[in-house]
Amino acid sequence: MTFSIVGRCAETGQLGIAISSSSIAVGARCPWLRAGVGAVASQNITLPALGPQILDALEAGLEPAAALDLALSRNGYSQYRQVAVLDSQGRSALFSGSEALGQHNAVAGEQCVAAGNLLAAPVVITVMVAAFEQTPGQLADRLLAAMHAAMAAGGEAGPVHSAALKVVGDLTWPIIDLRVDWAETNPIGALDQLWQAYRPQMQDYIIRALDPTAAPSYGVPGDE
C-alpha cells in the first residue's frame, strides 16, 4: 500500500522523505518534517497526528525510539501503524505493527531508514536503502534513486498511484515540497519530472523569499 525512504544529507544536514502509495494523495497524510528536528513517515493504516507528535517529542529532546514509543502509546491502535523516524543527527527508529498489510519490512541504513507494506517482496526495502547509500548528488536525487530502485525490485504488490518528495534544510519551510496526488501509471516518474523542472528554480525561490531586492525579476520563469 505504501513505501517510503527517509534520509539525511551528512554534508548539508538536510532531511527528506520520498514516498509512494496505491492510495490517493499520500503526500497529504504521511510525510512529516521539521527543519533541525527530524523527519517521520507515518504509513500503513496511517494516523497523520503521529508525525507532528513525534517531531514535538524530538524537539523536546527525546531520542527517536523514545519519541516513537511515546506517540504510539498515546494514540492506541499501534498494531495498525508503520512508522519510520530519523532525527537531525541521523539517528533512527522503526515500527511495524502486527496488522501491517501484506509483506512488509523496515530497514535502517547509513543516514536513512526505509519502510513499506503490501510489498511485492521484503527485499524491496533493502534495495531502497542500498540505492540511497550508493547514489551521489543532492538529497532529493538520492531519495528518488531509492524510489526508482524500489520499483525495479517489484515495488508494491499492486500499482501505485501517488507519490511525494519533501526536503527541509535551514529554513522554517520546506525547500522542496512536490506531490503527484493521482496518476494512473508511474507517479514516481511524474514526481521525478517535477523535480527536474523545479531543481533549477529552487534557489531562486529561496532568494526571492529572503531578499526580494536580490532578485528584481523574482528569478522565476513565468513571473512578471
What does this structure look like?
- About 50% of the residues are buried.
- The model has no long low-confidence stretch (mean pLDDT about 95).
- Helix 1 crosses helix 2 (about 65-75), helix 3 (about 125-135) packs antiparallel against helix 4 and helix 4 runs antiparallel to helix 5.
- About 30% of the residues lie in helices and about 25% in strands.
- The protein has a single domain (about 1-215), classed as Glutamine Phosphoribosylpyrophosphate, subunit 1, domain 1 (4-Layer Sandwich), CATH 3.60.20.10.
- The chain has a 6-stranded antiparallel β-sheet with strand order 7-8-1-2-9-10, covered by helices on one side. It has a 4-stranded antiparallel β-sheet with strand order 3-4-5-6, with helices on one face.
- The termini are far apart.
- A hairpin with a 6-residue loop joins strand 1 (about 1-10) and strand 2 (about 15-20).
- It has 6 helices and 10 strands, in the order ββββααββββααββαα.
- It is of the alpha+beta class and about 220 residues long.
